Every structure is written in structure tokens, then in C-alpha cells.
């Protein structure tokens, strides 16, 4: 059996937080994807995994030595409604490994069969949604955004029934951990303070060990999670990523992006953009993402309050409520700071003093308003702005049906750049180069994603998937091979595009 070197702290230290379970056997496992670079990070033998033994392992037919497969318990608010028991209904945590950088990483299955948390589900997954996890995770990783990543996808050789019969698959996912806000909610909802404390201390030891000796360590944990989420959501917003299902069971304590079901990247800029077929009210629309992150953090704070003060001490409870509300109320400003930091980089502006914050925020907001008013492609507009930094704005102007308003904004931006340069800024050539390093040329265009998944699922043709994946792994490089993946879909295609959760 191929060695993984598992060291499973979750299974060892948190009994009662999961159910030990085995993946379901499948008839004809076949490896569709293996992430060789990630395998190397994890100190795994990629060559040995890229064969029949690896296919059997990643499909769930063979459990590697040292693995302790478990279905984790968690709850969650889904579209605002609380479900006290969700859990891994089609997932299993195999175990944890220490990677080459000394980081502890979870290795988990998704689509590996029914568990005690499956409710009415079959516990299975289809090829298309599992390959989507690969594309989105690798795209976010290449863009420098914290994310879970796919190690492998294996076809199972059996059908999965949704609206129609689809080819089945199992995803192997790697994460800093699978601790979610919903994990805390599971035990808080049951009033199990001992397990809640055990979980919080485990989370601190795993993700924020410097906080372990802090007198108010649970408040400090909330602050740390809030800081990570503010940075993460700002990064999503600055590349036009819409998660689509920001339930509390999909918010990771680690600050990683997780669960890529009805997600999509925006094309024409629209703050109200929603692609998820199940988000009828726009709860998880693009512009709502920072607000939902704050709402989810408030739910996380509620689970920590019993650890901060005894319910019998009203004064202590009120003090703790005030403390956590300070963190929750500070989130919008923390997010705005992270957003502006990213926008400054995208605008090619050098670090500025606090006095420039208001003006630079207005400059960025007015730019976005321009894109919205003229339905301009979000990614290409930012990318072509780098050309304007070089002195050639013709490609940028071509994106606008009415370029007069753009000209006025460009005058303001260039004046800001001149002030920047006078204070030691990068200058035009270096500014353009810097902008091209943070404004991607290629994102997972929705029509290209769907083409790749349809070919893989319907025709067993992985070539479109592999070509798209190669392009997504070089999002900032303008190459002839990447050109087809940089072009937006036709407006009529984008207007009716919908994504599905894949469950």
C-alpha cells in the first residue's frame, strides 16, 4: 500500500465529534485527474499514485495504511435557516499529513458513498461537479487566494442519478482543515459546553497556536477568524468570484475557500450578479458576500460566548457579548481595508498614506460604477487598464460603448499615478508590469468550464478539461495557447447562465 504518513489528530483527540466509516466500494475505478504538484507538496509518490493502485485508492476501494476514515459532525445555517444536524453526508476525512513546508493538511474524500449523516442522499458525486472542484480550486490557487485543492478525481464506473444518469466520481480534497463555523454550531446547539471547549482549543492549537496562552483565547480566536475572512472575501471580490452558497457549514475556520458547487466568476460587472440556481432571493449575490461573511461570523461568535462567560453570570455574559460585538462591528472596516489594499495593487498605485484612503476608495468605486453602467467585462477591464498605464488605452476604450465617461475617470487616475510617482512610486513601465501581475488575463470563464465538464461527463473526453486547467494555472501570462480562454462569453449566454450544487 502506498505510504501517506498519516498523523490523525482529529480522530485521536476528538472522539465523539465524528463517526468512523468506510468509503463505499465501486466497480471499476479509473483515475481522471492527479495533481502531481500537490502530491509533491504532500510528500507523496506521484508516479506510484498515477496507476491502478492510485485509482483504487482515490475511488475508495483501498484505504491507505494509517488512514482512519471518519464522517465529521457539523450543523449549519443554510440560506439563513438553521439545520442542527448536517455532517459529512457524502464525504470522509481519511486523515492528516504534514507537508514539505511543515503544514498539517487534511486529505478527504467527497462522493465516497452514504454515511450516517446522509439523510435522504445517496452519498455519491458525478464527474462534472468533481472536475469543477479541480478547476475552481486550481484557479483560485493560481490567483494567490487561499483555497482547498483537489488532489485527485477518480471515476467509479457506476451511474449517479440526478435529473438524469451521470457518470460517478470521487474527489480527493486537501485542506488546512475541515473545521467549519457549522462544526461549532453542532455542539453549541446541543448545549455541550465541554465538547465546544474541546473543539475551540483544538482549533486554536491547529490554526492559531500563538493564542493558546492568551487569557481571552476564545475572543482572540474570533478575531483571528474574522481577519482571515476579511482578507479572503476581499480577494474574492477583487477577481469577481461568487461562491454561491455561503452557508455557515461552508465557512472554514482556516480562512480557505471551500466547497465549489454553484460558484462562478462574474463576466460583465454587476454587483447583483447571482448564478446559483438555488439562490432565488440573491442572498449570496456578489455584492452581498462581505455582509454574509459578517453574518456568519456573528453565528460563530454565538458559539463561543458560552466559553467566555457562564450563563449564570449575567454581568460576565453582557461583557462577553460586548467584546464579540466589537469584533463583528469592526469587520466591515477590516474588510474595506483589505479590499482597498487589493484595489490599489490592481490600479497600479503605490502604498499611500491614510489621507489618501478616502480618495482612493472613491477612485475605485467610480471605476466599478463605470463598468456596471456599461456592462463591461470585469476581468478584461482591469487587465487592459495596465495597457493604459503604458500609455495605450485603445484596447481599454474598445470595451466601452460610451468612452467619454472613461476618459474623465482616466484623467483622475493618471493624476493620482503622477502624484504617486512624485512620492517615489514605480513609474509607468513598472506600474504596468505590476498591474499585469495582479490583474489576471484568464479566469474560469463559465462557458469554457461548462464545455470542459460536458466533454468529460458526456463523451469521456478530458482534453478540453486538461487544456482549460493548463490555462487557469497561468492566469497572468498572455500566450497564444491561452487566448481562447481569455475571451468572454456572448452576453446572451452569460445572461441565462446558471450553476448547480451538484448534490
What descriptors fit this protein?
503 residues, alpha+beta, 6-stranded antiparallel β-sheet, 19 helices, 12 strands, globular
Helical proportion, percent range? 40-55%
Number of domains: 3
What percent of residues are in strands? 5-15%
Count of DSSP H/I helices = 19
Kindly state the mean pLDDT as a whole number? 95
* Structure class: alpha+beta
Q: Main β-sheet: number of strands, strand sense, barrel status?
A: 6 strands, antiparallel
Low-confidence runs of at least 5 consecutive residues: none
The coarse silhouette is globular
Characterization of the model:
The structure is a single chain. This protein has 503 residues and is an alpha+beta fold. It has 19 helices and twelve strands. The strands form four sheets. Strands 2, 6, 7, 8, 9 and 10 form a six-stranded antiparallel β-sheet that branches. A two-stranded antiparallel ribbon has the order 1-3.
Amino acid at each position: 500500500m502506498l505510504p501517506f504518513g498519516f498523523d490523525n489528530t482529529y480522530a485521536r483527540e476528538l472522539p465523539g465529534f465524528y463517526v468512523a466509516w468506510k468509503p463505499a466500494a465501486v466497480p471499476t475505478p479509473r483515475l481522471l485527474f492527479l495533481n502531481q504538484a500537490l502530491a509533491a507538496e504532500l510528500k507523496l509518490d506521484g508516479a506510484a499514485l498515477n496507476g491502478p493502485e492510485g485509482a483504487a485508492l482515490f475511488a475508495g476501494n483501498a484505504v491507505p495504511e494509517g488512514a482512519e476514515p471518519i464522517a465529521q459532525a457539523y450543523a449549519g445555517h443554510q440560506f439563513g435557516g438553521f439545520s442542527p444536524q448536517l455532517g459529512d453526508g457524502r464525504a470522509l476525512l481519511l486523515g492528516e499529513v504534514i507537508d514539505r513546508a511543515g503544514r498539517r493538511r487534511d486529505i478527504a474524500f467527497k462522493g465516497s458513498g452514504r454515511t450516517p449523516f446522509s439523510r435522504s442522499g445517496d452519498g455519491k458525486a458525478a464527474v462534472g461537479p468533481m472536475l469543477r472542484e479541480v478547476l475552481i480550486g486550481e484557479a483560485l490557487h493560481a490567483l494567490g487566494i487561499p483555497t482547498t485543492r483537489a488532489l485527485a478525481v477518480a471515476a467509479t464506473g457506476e451511474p449517479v442519478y440526478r435529473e438524469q444518469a451521470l457518470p460517478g466520481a470521487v474527489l480527493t480534497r486537501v485542506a488546512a482543515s475541515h473545521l467549519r463555523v457549522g462544526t461549532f454550531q453542532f455542539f453549541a446547539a446541543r448545549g455541550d459546553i465541554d465538547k465546544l471547549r474541546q473543539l475551540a482549543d483544538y482549533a486554536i492549537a491547529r490554526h492559531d497556536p500563538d493564542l493558546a496562552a492568551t487569557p481571552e483565547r476564545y475572543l482572540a480566536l474570533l478575531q483571528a477568524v474574522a481577519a482571515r475572512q476579511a482578507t479572503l472575501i476581499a480577494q474574492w471580490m477583487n477577481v469577481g468570484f461568487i461562491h454561491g452558497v455561503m452557508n455557515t457549514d461552508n465557512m472554514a475556520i482556516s480562512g480557505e475557500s471551500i466547497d465549489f458547487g454553484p460558484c462562478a466568476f462574474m463576466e460583465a460587472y454587476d454587483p447583483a450578479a447571482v448564478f446559483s440556481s438555488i439562490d432565488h432571493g440573491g442572498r449570496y449575490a456578489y455584492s452581498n458576500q462581505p455582509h454574509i461573511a459578517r453574518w456568519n461570523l456573528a453565528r460563530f461568535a454565538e458559539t463561543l460566548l458560552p466559553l467566555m462567560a457562564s450563563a449564570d453570570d449575567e454581568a460576565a455574559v453582557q461583557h462577553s457579548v460586548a467584546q464579540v460585538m466589537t469584533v463583528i462591528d469592526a469587520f466591515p472596516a477590516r474588510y474595506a481595508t483589505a479590499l482597498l489594499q487589493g484595489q490599489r495593487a490592481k490600479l497600479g498605485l503605490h502604498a499611500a498614506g491614510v489621507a489618501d484612503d478616502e480618495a482612493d476608495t472613491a477612485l475605485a468605486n467610480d471605476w466599478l460604477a463605470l463598468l456596471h453602467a456599461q456592462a463591461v467585462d470585469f476581468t478584461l477591464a482591469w487587465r487592459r487598464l495596465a495597457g493604459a498605464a503604458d500609455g495605450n488605452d485603445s484596447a481599454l476604450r474598445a470595451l466601452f460603448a460610451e468612452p467619454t465617461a472613461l476618459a474623465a475617470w482616466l484623467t483622475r487616475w493618471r493624476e493620482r499615478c503622477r502624484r504617486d510617482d512624485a512620492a517615489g512610486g514605480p513609474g509607468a513601465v513598472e506600474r504596468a508590469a505590476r498591474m499585469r501581475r495582479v490583474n489576471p488575463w484568464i479566469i474560469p470563464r463559465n462557458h469554457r468550464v461548462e464545455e470542459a465538464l460536458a466533454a468529460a461527463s458526456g463523451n469521456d473526453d478530458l482534453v478540453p478539461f486538461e487544456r482549460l486547467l493548463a490555462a487557469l494555472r497561468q492566469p497572468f501570462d498572455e500566450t497564444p495557447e491561452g487566448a481562447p480562454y481569455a475571451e468572454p462569453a456572448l452576453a446572451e449566454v452569460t445572461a441565462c447562465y446558471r450553476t448547480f450544487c451538484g448534490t
